[in-house]
Amino acid sequence: MTNMNLDRAALRPAIAVSQLSKRVADATGELTILHEVDFAVQAGETLAIVGASGSGKSTLLGILAGLDTPSDGTVALEGVDIFKLDEDGRAVFRQNNLGFVFQSFQLLAHLTALENVMLPLELRGFTHANAQARAEAMLARVGLSSRLGHYPKYLSGGEQQRVALARAFVTEPPLLLADEPTGSLDAATGAAVVELMFALNRERGSTLVLVTHDLNIAARCGRTLTMAAGRLRQEP
Ligand SMILES: Nc1ncnc2c1ncn2[C@@H]1O[C@H](COP(=O)(O)OP(=O)(O)OP(=O)(O)O)[C@@H](O)[C@H]1O
């Protein structure tokens, strides 16, 4: 078996952020949320982004996800300068390359667990039968075979987050971004979800970037970047 992580890493970094700044207008004029942030992540790496509340972590992750735009600087994901794409191009790139897990799960309330996980596959043109088979296999992988027909409100927080993980991973994206994925869970459930994320990362060779306040989770990642007042401090 070839080592996909090394093969990918040999080609280019999975993420290359250069001189990234974000400024927004506020009541007193202009506020700089991110100051000339630079970093790169190799394919297959696990990276934690930590830092005090308000230091800019979610803003940075939102820009990596192409959900927010930078004021200056570039973001290359899998070698593609995503802000050179127009909005439609970015949406397609996102659909094909990114999985995103949020603190608040963000499952669609009117869809069952199975339908939530099928959705990204159907958006990518999979037939209903194919999407269903893949989604069922993914939900089995996260231990939820007995919950396929449940709507989110009838699932526990940990179960909802496992559905969200299944949805993020089902398309096998090379890049997974997670913003406080355990923030709404108790410690034991959060630990189980994190274990699952790392297991999927190892199995798929995907790159994992996760924002967390939990230093135990950060310690499990290969590398940690610390944000302070919109600037990045790289750990040795
Ligand atoms: N659109 C905006 N307009 C004005 N201020 C903003 C905007 N977006 C973010 N901010 C401010 O930028 C700073 C960084 O916010 P961000 O959510 O990125 O921080 P964070 O490190 O993720 O915080 P937390 O850990 O509390 O989630 C905060 O002070 C926030 O209030």
UniProtKB/TrEMBL annotation:
Belongs to the ABC transporter superfamily. Macrolide exporter (TC 3.A.1.122) family. One of its GO terms (cellular component) is membrane protein complex. Gene3D superfamilies: P-loop containing nucleotide triphosphate hydrolases. Keywords: Antibiotic resistance, ATP-binding, Cell membrane, Membrane, Nucleotide-binding, Transmembrane, Transmembrane helix, Transport. CDD domains: ABC_MJ0796_LolCDE_FtsE. SUPFAM superfamilies: P-loop containing nucleoside triphosphate hydrolases. Pfam families: ABC_tran (PF00005). GO terms for biological process: response to antibiotic. PROSITE patterns: ABC_TRANSPORTER_1, ABC_TRANSPORTER_2. It comes from the Bacteria. InterPro entries: AAA+_ATPase (IPR003593), ABC_transporter-like_ATP-bd (IPR003439), ABC_transporter-like_CS (IPR017871), ABC_transpr_LolD-like (IPR015854), MacB-like_ATP-bd (IPR017911), P-loop_NTPase (IPR027417). This is Putative ABC transport system ATP-binding protein. It comes from Rugamonas rubra. GO terms for molecular function: ATP binding; ATP hydrolysis activity; transmembrane transporter activity. Residues 15-236 form the ABC transporter domain.
